[in-house]
Amino acid sequence: MVDINKLSSYHLDVLGEIGNIGAGNAATALSGLLNKKIDMKVPAIKIVGFNELMEYVGGPDQEIVSVCLRIQGEAPGSMFFVLKPEEANALAEKLLGVPVKDVSSDEMALSAVSEVGNILSGSYLSALSDFTAINMQPTVPTLLFDMAAAILMQGLVEISQESDYAIIIDTSIEENNQQDDTVKGHFLLLPELESFEKIFQSLGVQE
Length: 207
Description:
The chain is of the alpha+beta class. The chain is built from 6 helices and 8 strands. Strand 7 (165-175) and strand 8 form a beta hairpin.
């Protein structure tokens, strides 16, 4: 099994670069879709245990909006794009150009947030797959509203709770470089145990 203690700043930098490539591809796709400049950046990337992961998104009782999908192929697992409700509202406002008070009850806002999560997840997964030369394909995403514990535990159940770690890619979304109006979310990758090993072995981390 890959020893997380053997992961160096270099490996995290590589993951960060993969994340930035995915974010850049997603920003290009969204800019074309919306006909306005959208910037996405990856300010930080972390590898954490599942208990820490829960706290990272605000605690088990924190309500979140999440676009969820399964990863199929040579490195199966689960993926989540996670936003707090106020961030989801702000993102929908950016996309639609109209005020959004509650994304959970606004069909157009729901569709917009789901599309962003779909594009972002697909872009990140494609970048990771290309860089590691590991075949990974996303399933059709699902948009969920619930407490963090309920949503993330679903991901753990789907991978049979065989993995110990999650990869967190912080994501910031800006429109026309308006840094004072940035939407912040988290992209979470929960690989199965063998998938985690395969990904990091491809990055040069030995067992």
